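Quick review question:
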């Protein structure tokens, strides 16, 4: 068994989901009688899971709103608009099967599990993934290391030589906490902040070469 693994973040790394997340959260805002927010504002709220997303996006809601109700509303609206505009980033469809020849592949996302699995399935990448760990499958979210360690364990892979590939400080922070190497995707919509990365890619198709170069350096 190949014990090395590449764990991918989903939003901003494999898929551009900004528009549909914005649509769904704006429908939640409409449920509370609030006006729509622009895509750039909404995008800046994404990355720390659905609770944080709603907390940030409903700051101007009347006091007393229930997080549980808002999460249910979000799940329904996002389900209805999951793939209106969401698509794989350029190079993802072609490059994942190439990487799957030498690596176990998995997704570790702060997106809720059901939505993450549906996106992977419907965009045709589920078959190359050994595991998907989304919000709720593991009790902790990135930047905690637990979801990454859970994915490795479920896939029978080890920390040694494995990578986390993502566009957000939470991905890099989780990689560092779990002891994985980290590749930052500069084309995504997250922020690196002060988190260090072992490699940076501007386009997904650069990943195989970047990983080979890192192997040669080791
Ligand atoms: O839904 C989120 O909060 C972010 O999801 P991600 O971890 O795939 O970027």
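Suggested answer, residue by residue:
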């Amino acid at each position: 068994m190949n014990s090395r693994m590449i764990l991918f973040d989903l939003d901003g790394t494999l898929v551009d989901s900004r528009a549909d997340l914005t649509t769904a959260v704006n429908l939640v805002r409409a449920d509370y009688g609030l006006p729509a927010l622009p895509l750039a504002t909404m995008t800046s709220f994404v990355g720390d899971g659905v609770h944080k997303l709603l907390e940030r996006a409903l700051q101007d809601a009347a006091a007393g709103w229930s997080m549980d109700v808002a999460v249910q509303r979000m799940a329904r609206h996002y389900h209805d608009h999951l793939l209106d505009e969401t698509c794989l980033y350029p190079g993802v469809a072609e490059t994942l099967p190439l990487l799957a020849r030498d690596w176990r592949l998995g997704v570790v996302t702060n997106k809720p599990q059901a939505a993450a699995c549906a996106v992977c399935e419907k965009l045709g990448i589920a078959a190359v993934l050994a595991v998907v760990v989304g919000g709720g499958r593991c009790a902790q979210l990135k930047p905690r290391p637990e979801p990454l360690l859970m994915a490795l364990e479920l896939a029978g892979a080890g920390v040694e030589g494995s990578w986390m590939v993502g566009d957000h400080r939470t991905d890099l922070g989780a990689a560092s906490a779990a002891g994985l190497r980290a590749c930052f995707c500069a084309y995504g919509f997250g922020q690196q902040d002060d988190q260090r990365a072992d490699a940076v890619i501007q386009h997904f198709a650069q990943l195989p070469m970047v990983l080979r170069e890192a192997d040669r350096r080791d």
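Why it works: The radius of gyration is 17 Å. The mean pLDDT is 96.
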